[in-house]
């Protein structure tokens, strides 16, 4: 089943179950995918839908950080609940050990030696493990290894 169809099925199930959080998140997700479909003038692939989900998840993560900074744990909790719903559609992130091993392997393959080569290490990892790697965490780890 395609990702868009899975979202539609889950949306109907959330509606029937009266799960307001999941229903709201999936409603926003369906709207965002529909807007993208209108923008690109074609049927969306799973990769397109996956990109929309990642963008929505990133927005929720940024909101959580801003609400915590502003000392608004009530709003951060709402965003966290919405992020949990979105995470069910994202692949499992790499563990810290897997990420460290991947960075070491990529540094060895590319021959990166200093901070100028940071892009040589980050670009292939971000491309090959899209959605499974946090860019901030990867950047910090690559900086540490190349310094």
Helix count equals: 7
Tell me about the largest β-sheet. Answer: none
- Structural class of the secondary structure composition? mainly alpha
Measured on Cα atoms, how large is the radius of gyration? 18 Å
Strand segment count: 0
Distance between the termini: 45 Å
Give the integer mean of the pLDDT values. Answer: 92
Order of helices and strands: HHHHHHH
Low-confidence stretches: none
- The portion of residues forming beta strands comes to under 5%
**Shape type:** globular
Report the helical percentage.
over 70%
Task: Quickly describe the structure.
This protein is mostly helical and 147 residues long.
Throw out a few tags for this protein.
147 residues; globular
Architecture overview:
This protein has 147 residues and is mainly α. The chain is 77% helix and 0% strand. The longest helix is centred in the middle third of the chain and has 24 residues, at 46-69. The model has no long low-confidence stretch (mean pLDDT 92).
Question: Layout of helices and strands, plus pairs?
Answer:
Elements: H1 3-17, H2 20-40, H3 46-69, H4 73-87, H5 96-110, H6 118-128, H7 135-146
Helix pairs in contact: 1-2, 2-3, 2-4, 3-4, 5-6, 5-7, 6-7
């Amino acid at each position: 089943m395609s990702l868009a169809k899975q979202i539609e099925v889950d949306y109907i199930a959330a509606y029937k179950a009266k799960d307001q959080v999941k229903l709201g998140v999936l409603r926003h997700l369906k709207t965002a995918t529909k807007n993208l479909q209108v923008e690109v003038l074609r049927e969306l692939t799973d990769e397109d839908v996956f990109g929309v989900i990642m963008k929505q998840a990133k927005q929720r993560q940024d909101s959580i950080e801003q609400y915590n900074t502003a000392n608004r744990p009530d709003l951060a909790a709402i965003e966290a609940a919405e992020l949990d719903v979105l995470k069910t559609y994202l692949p499992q992130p790499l563990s810290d050990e897997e990420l460290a091993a991947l960075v070491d392997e990529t540094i060895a393959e590319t021959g990166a030696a200093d901070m100028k080569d940071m892009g040589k290490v980050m670009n292939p990892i971000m491309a090959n493990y899209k959605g499974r790697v946090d860019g901030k965490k990867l950047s910090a780890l690559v900086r540490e290894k190349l310094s």
